[in-house]
Amino acid sequence: MVRAAAPGTVVTADTPFLPADDQFHPAPDDDPYWAETTWWSFNIPERRIGGWLHATFHTTRGTVTWRVYVWDPSGATPQDLRYFRMVTDVPLDNPAPDLRDIAIPAGGFSVRMLRPLREYQIEFSDPAADFEIRLHFDGVHDPRRYTPGEPPFMEHAHLDQLGHVTGELVLAGERLPIDCYSIRDRSWAPRGAPRPAGATPSGAGDTDRVRHPGGPRWREIERERGRGRIQYIFGHAGADAGFLAFARVADGDAAGWSPLNHGWLLRDGHFELLDKTTSRMKNYRHPLTGWSAHMQVRLTDVTGRRMDAEGFTVSHICEHGGGSTALMRWEFDGRIGWGEDQDIWHPKHFARMRAALQAVH
Question: Which residues lie within the region annotated Disordered (predicted)?
């Protein structure tokens, strides 16, 4: 029997995932906050459409929260999206669910593994809304792991994988073909547990949270540590070219350049991990919404290969009133690629940054 890495095994960025990682993992000590996720994304560039299917399973508690949504330039908030549905804390109807072949309860989407760690079929249907998704995900490469114990993967086991995504979207009765390159990810770790007493320093002011003070005030607010800021970007022009990266915004400099500490560079069909010491990103925000609008990315991999990418957001979803997830059009190496910017904020932190971006005195 093929098993996941044994307890006590030293896991590094080079440790491969195993077929058993397509399945749920036992929760250490039956941790009630143990969570496993499955996420699938797709896009239709000609229509500026992005789409997600995402589920978080709390296997110890026997529940799942799932959501499916599709967005385009016509609207960004849940009530304005082309499609949005979320169901929270649904009891799992199977006491021993198998993530390799599962239909999520309460009308959720289904996932069926066709080839371990490589090929999957994902389906969802909402007949009342004349809405349907059928996706076939064919992985371009083995899932990628990043250095454990570094932000944002302090406790998480996490994989990212580029795939060729084909299928069909039925949107308000209109049938749209899907043929793109996009990302799936999975993670398993405790999530949502209360912070231990004393975990947040008392009496710390906002300026104490900024590692490199200076520059525009809105950028200084953006760089505050301890706010739960995550920014995740990717773009691919096919199976042979593109990139994926996590930005460490809190470690950025006063000029607005943020280091990238996880991810890959793909060129000529060859993947390499990013050089964390030289890869960086600079983001420019829309002065009214505060959402990402334009981005420059300078990537170097561990073998010294370089790629400069420039991206523009073309449509957004703002789910929680903070930042947004955007469909992005990228240019790199003389090619056009498509992907996302996942710009995640606590709503109050985002509101402070946007107020500074819009200040007139």
Answer: 190-217
